[in-house]
Design a protein that fits this description.
CATH superfamily of one domain in chain B: MetI-like
CATH architecture of one domain in chain B: Orthogonal Bundle
Helix content of chain B: over 70%
Strand content of chain A: 25-35%
Distance between the termini of chain B: 33 Å
Helix content of chain A: 10-25%
Oligomer: heterodimer
CATH architecture of the largest domain in chain A: 3-Layer(aba) Sandwich
Number of domains of chain A: 2
Order of helices and strands of chain B: HEEHHHHHHHHHHH
Largest sheet of chain B: 2 strands, antiparallel
Strand order of the largest sheet of chain A: 6-7-8-3-9-10
Mean pLDDT of chain A: 89
Number of strands of chain B: 2
Strand order of the largest sheet of chain B: 1-2
Strand content of chain B: under 5%
Shape of chain B: flat
Structural class of chain B: mainly alpha
Order of helices and strands of chain A: EEEHEEEHHHEHEHEEHHEEEEEEEEEE
CATH class of one domain in chain B: Mainly Alpha
Mean pLDDT of chain B: 87
Distance between the termini of chain A: 37 Å
Number of strands of chain A: 20
CATH topology of one domain in chain B: MetI-like fold
C-alpha cells in the first residue's frame, strides 16, 4: 500500500497564552512511501517523528493536511478503521492476556463480513506467531517473556490482521545491544516476507541506515532529507543531516573559501570549485582522511586505536568543532603513536562544505 | 538457621503481641463464652456448657429479623453501590470539564458525619404532623400517596436503609476506582484502538481486567462492611431497632450486651460467632471466585 502525506501539519497548543507558545510538531510534511518498502523516520528526540507516526496511525489528528493510503483519503478515519498495525515502544501487550489471546485480540475485533470463524482466527494467530518464531510460547503471559520475546509478540499482534501498513515506534530501544542487532535483521526479514509497507521511527541512525529502504531525516518537525540511506550519507543536504548520520560522527572544521580553494586555518587543503569566497563549515567523514607525510592538514595526535581491519587516528585541531577528530584509515598504514603531529590529505568526495549561517550545502 | 529464625520471631514479636492481646485472645474468649450458658461477666460465673446459646439465638425472632435485614442489605447494597461507583468513576474519568467539582460532590458523603447524614435523611423521609417530608413531596408530584418511610411499612424502611447505605459507601469506592482507572496506562487503550476494538470491548476486555484487583478488593470489603452495618440503622431509626424491625446482626449483638434487654454476653457471643462464620464463608467464596476472574 502506497502512503502519501500531503502538507501534513500538527500543532500543539502551548501552555501559556498567545500563539507564540504553540509547538509545531510536524510542519508541512510532504512525502510518499512506495508500496512494500521499509521507511525509517529518523531524527533526534522532539523532532516530530513519533507525532508523524501517530498521525499515520490515527491516534492523533493533524491540524491540517491529508494522509492517503493508496488512493483512499484516511485523514478523518479513526485508528480502528485505518487497518494499521502499530508496535509500541513499550510493546503495550495486555498483561492479563496470554500471548495467544494478545495475538487474537485484533482478529476478535473484526465485525460483520470480515469476522472470521474461531478456527481461522486460531490458525492466523499461529501463523503470525510462527512468522516471528514465538509459536512455542503461546500460553505464556507477557510478564513471563523476555524483552525480545515481548517485542516479537507485539509484532505478531500488529501483523495478524494483515494491516495495510505497519508502524513501529522505536521498536528496538528497549532491547540490549546484541538483541537489537538480531531483532533489526528480524524486522527486515519479516517485512520482506510480508511485503507490508512499513514505517519505523528511531533516533538511532545506525539502526535506520542498516535496514531501511529509505530514510526520512527530520528536525524540529521539518523534513530535512529523504533518500536511500547511502545516498543521504554520501550527499547530505545540510550540516544537520551530515552531523546526524554516521558513526563515528563527521568531523566539522571552521574553514574559509578563497579563490575557489578551501582553507582550514592557514592550510590550503582542497579545491572548492564554484563556491564563492566566504567562511564555511567543512565537514569531513572519518573515512575521508588520507595519511600523508606532507598532507596539508596538520593535526595534533592524541591516540591511535587499532581495530584489526582499520585504524582510528584520534587527533585534535584548533579549528575543529568536535572535541576529537576521528579518522578511520586502513590498517595497512603505519602510524607512529609517539609522534606529536599527524598530517592528512582529504578525499574530495568525503568533504562537504556548508554555509556558516544556515548550514546549507555549498559543495 | 536456628539463629536466623529466632531473629525473625524477635522482629515479629511486637506485632504478634498486639495481635495476640487485642485480636486472638478476644476472639478465642468470645468463642468460649458462646458455649457457656448464662455467663456473667461481673461474677465470672456460668451455669453450664453446651450449644444452648446458639439454639436460643437461632430461634430468637429478633435475631432472625436482624439476620434477614442484614442479608437483604448486603445483597442489595454491595452490587448496587459497586456498580454505581464503577459507572460514576468511568464517567468521571472520561470528562475533563468540571471533573474536580463532580469528584468533590461525590466524595462529600465520605467526610460527612454518619449521624449528621442520618439527620438529613430523616428530614428527607420522615413524616411529622407538619410535613410529609421532601421525598413524599416529590412522590406527590407523581400522584403517589404519602408513605411513612421511617415508621411505616417494612419495605419502605428497608428502601431508606439501602438508599442511605449505598449513598454512604459509594464515595470511597468512587475514589478508589477513579484512581485505579487513572493508573491504567494510556498506551493499552491506544493499542486497543489501533487493533480495532470498540469502546465496549475496550472496557470489558482491557479496562475491567486491569482494575479487577481493585474491584475485587472493594467487593470483599463491601461485603464485610455491609455485614457489620449498625450505625446506619441507628442514624435512621433510632436505638430501639428491634421495635422498628430494622435491627442488624451487629445491632442485635450490641443490644444483647448493653441494650434495654442487655446483660446477656453469652447470647451476644453466640451471635457474634454466627456473624463471624457467615463473613468468613462469604469471604472464602469471594476469594475462590476471584481466583478465576481477577487477573494478575
Amino acid at each position: 500500500m502506497k502512503v502519501t502525506l500531503q502538507n501534513l501539519t500538527k500543532k500543539y497548543p502551548g501552555r501559556g497564552k498567545g500563539p507564540k507558545t504553540e509547538v509545531i510538531a510536524a510542519n508541512d510534511l510532504n512525502f510518499e512511501i512506495p508500496d512494500g518498502k521499509l521507511i525509517g523516520l529518523l531524527g533526534p528526540s522532539g523532532c516530530g517523528k513519533s507525532t508523524t507516526l501517530n498521525l499515520l496511525s490515527g491516534l492523533q489528528t493533524p491540524t491540517s493536511g491529508r494522509i492517503f493510503f493508496g488512493d483512499e483519503d484516511v485523514t478523518d478515519l479513526p485508528p480502528q478503521e485505518r487497518g494499521v498495525g502499530l508496535v509500541f515502544q513499550n510493546y503495550a501487550l495486555y498483561p492479563h492476556l496470554t500471548v495467544r489471546q494478545n495475538i487474537l485480540f485484533p482478529l476478535q475485533n473484526l465485525k460483520g463480513a470480515a469476522r472470521l470463524s474461531k478456527e481461522v482466527m486460531e490458525e492466523k494467530a499461529l501463523e503470525a506467531a510462527r512468522l516471528v518464531q514465538i509459536d512455542g510460547l503461546m500460553e505464556r503471559k507477557p510478564a513471563e517473556l523476555s524483552g525480545g520475546q515481548q517485542q516479537r509478540v507485539a509484532i505478531a499482534r500488529a501483523l495478524v490482521k494483515m494491516p495495510r501498513i505497519l508502524l513501529l515506534d522505536e521498536p528496538l530501544s528497549n532491547l540490549d545491544a546484541r538483541l537489537r542487532l538480531q531483532t533489526r535483521e528480524e524486522i527486515r526479514r519479516i517485512q520482506r516476507e510480508t511485503k507490508i509497507t512499513t514505517v519505523f521511527v528511531t533516533h538511532d541512525q545506525e539502526e535506520a541506515m542498516s535496514i531501511s529502504d529509505q530514510i526520512v531525516v527530520m528536525k524540529d518537525g521539518v523534513i530535512q532529507q529523504i533518500g536511500r540511506p547511502q545516498e543521504v550519507y554520501d550527499e547530505p543536504i545540510n550540516l544537520f543531516v551530515a552531523k546526524f548520520l554516521g558513526t563515528p560522527p563527521i568531523n566539522v572544521f571552521m574553514g574559509r573559501v578563497k579563490n575557489q580553494r578551501l582553507y582550514i586555518g592557514d592550510a590550503d587543503v582542497l579545491e572548492a570549485p564554484g563556491v564563492a569566497d566566504q567562511p564555511v563549515w567543512a565537514a569531513v567523514r572519518p573515512e575521508g582522511f588520507i595519511l600523508e607525510k606532507d598532507g596539508p592538514l596538520a593535526c595534533a595526535l592524541t591516540g591511535v586505536e587499532v581495530m584489526g581491519r582499520d585504524i582510528t587516528v584520534v587527533a585534535t585541531h584548533p579549528d575543529c568543532e568536535n572535541t576529537a577528530i576521528r579518522a578511520i584509515i586502513s590498517a595497512e598504514n603505519q602510524v607512529d603513536a609517539g609522534a606529536h603531529t599527524v598530517r592528512f590529505a582529504l578525499k574530495p568526495h568525503k568533504v562537504f562544505l556548508f554555509d556558516r549561517d544556515a548550514g546549507a550545502r555549498l559543495l | 538457621m536456628e539463629k536466623k529464625s529466632l531473629k525473625g520471631w524477635l522482629y515479629l514479636l511486637p506485632a504478634l503481641l498486639f495481635l495476640g492481646v487485642f485480636m486472638v485472645y478476644p476472639l478465642v474468649d468470645v468463642f468460649i463464652y458462646s458455649f457457656e450458658e448464662g455467663y456473667n461477666s461481673a461474677s465470672q460465673t456460668f451455669f453450664g456448657t453446651g450449644i444452648y446459646n446458639y439454639r436460643y439465638v437461632l430461634r430468637d425472632p429478633y435475631f432472625l429479623q436482624a439476620l434477614k435485614n442484614t442479608f437483604i442489605l448486603v445483597v442489595i447494597t454491595v452490587p448496587l453501590s459497586t456498580g454505581l461507583a464503577l459507572l460514576i468513576s468511568v464517567g468521571l474519568s472520561s470528562i475533563r470539564k468540571l471533573r474536580n467539582l463532580f469528584q468533590t460532590v461525590f466524595f462529600l458523603p465520605y467526610v460527612t458525619n454518619t449521624l449528621a447524614v442520618g439527620l438529613v435523611f430523616m428530614i428527607l423521609f420522615k413524616q411529622t404532623p407538619y410535613t410529609d417530608g421532601l421525598a413524599n413531596l416529590i412522590l406527590g408530584l407523581f400522584g403517589a400517596g404519602p408513605i411513612d418511610f421511617i415508621g411505616g411499612p417494612y419495605w419502605a424502611k428497608m428502601f431508606v436503609l439501602c438508599f442511605y447505605t449505598v449513598w454512604v459507601v459509594m464515595p470511597f469506592k468512587i475514589l478508589v476506582l477513579t484512581s485505579a482507572l487513572a493508573s491504567v496506562d494510556e498506551t493499552y487503550y491506544n493499542a486497543a484502538r489501533v487493533d480495532g476494538a470498540s469502546r465496549w470491548r475496550i472496557f470489558s476486555r482491557i479496562t475491567l481486567p486491569m482494575i479487577s484487583p481493585t474491584l475485587f478488593y472493594l467487593i470483599i470489603t463491601g461485603f464485610i462492611g455491609a455485614f457489620k452495618a449498625y450505625s446506619d440503622a441507628v442514624a435512621l431509626f433510632g436505638t430501639d431497632l428491634n421495635a422498628s424491625e430494622m435491627n442488624t446482626i451487629v445491632g442485635y449483638i450490641y443490644d444483647m450486651l448493653y441494650g434495654n434487654s442487655g446483660g446477656y454476653p453469652s447470647y451476644a457471643s453466640a451471635a457474634a460467632i454466627v456473624l463471624f462464620a457467615i463473613v468468613l464463608t462469604i469471604t472464602v467464596i469471594n476469594l475462590l471466585v476471584s481466583r478465576k476472574h481477577v487477573h494478575y
